[in-house]
Predict the 3D structure of the following.
Amino acid sequence: MRSALGTVEPITTYLYIFMKQKISLSIGALLIILIIGLLFFGKGSARVPEHSKLDGTSKILGSKSSDESLKKYAVNFYMENSASMDGYVNGLTEFKDVLGKMIVSAHHSCKSASLYFVNDKIYETTDNAISFIQMLSPSKIKVGNVGATDVNQIFRNILARTGKNDISVLFSDCIYSVRNVTNELDNAKNATTDAFLQAMGKNPDVATIILQFVSRFDGYYYDRNDSPMRCNSSRPFYVVITGNRDALKKLYDTFNIASLPRLKNKCLLSSESWTLNSNNACIVISDYTNARRIKTMKNFLDVEKISLERDCSILTFGVGVDFSNMFVDDTYAADASNYTVEPEGYKVKSVVKASSSATGDFSETPHMPYVLNLEVPVNKFAPSITITLNKDIPAWVKKSNVDDDAGFVPSPTQSFAIQKMVEGIAAAYSANYSNIFKLQININKYNR
């Protein structure tokens, strides 16, 4: 027995020692791999910064759009019926066509639609949509005080009646009743701001859409001195829509506003200011000149490194932005002059609609993608770039403005003091935040 055991025991012992060493080596190898992995991923995640809310913005933009139902909203249409409006309802005009189309849309898509005349007070009409449009004529709209009308009083009266489940739609020529352009226009502008600030105090989610149309006009134009001048040509008119921001976005699409006859310009205003992140912005690497020299981080937005040619003097690259969840007019967003870039010397050179290949660079499928063409001076490289879309009045407002209309009828695309009025409304929506969005891009390394 002993001799047999003595022969087997050393073999068993050596096998045990071998297996123990092998297991120890395997465990050691696994530990080394684990440590390397933790160091690698830890380093990688540390280098991809979190895009938290930037200073000067109200919130981070969500990645999902709101699908607000119009069925819970009552739409109230207000037509200014002062004497200056007679020419818009004399015969077949675009004014009547636009009003009729919007009323019909409201009847079919909203909780209710009510029709009012407005001057110094509000007067309800019991006519249905079709009969209301058919009865519109200079002789049939004389309800209440149709003399000189204070537009700010109209705003105050309408906004006071605009609850959280109401959408107010004003049809007007939006002309201030002032005689002294030096002293009274700024007071009128401030009064407009005050009226909209009061509305925002009741409902912080309130927003406004301003639409400029052109219509045939056959009547009298009244200048700032209330002097009537015969006019038989096209004149601009405005539709000012106020209500819940998400509801207005839905209304714009449901009413098919973009296709309404002779729509010239638009302006969308809200109090919101957003921080963008990798859910709605990205570095475009698909079809840009320097794309092959840019390596992005895993969040699609920040940059790992940019490799430059030695003779490169200006670096340009594309920044993709999805505007679909923002309350902003695409024309305004596409105007490069509305952007500010930091550091100084950086600029948005142009804004274009994103190509089909560029949309693939987003982390999530964009629904309203544009590319900001960013220009960077080589001698001013910075570790981060901040792009801001400022809240300002659109360029079309200044082009449509006439500072003084005494003694003449402005051109068919211009209105007296419309710039002051839009500035007054816009000032209320920019009281807390001066930008529509901010976007920060972090750049880890520049290579020469």
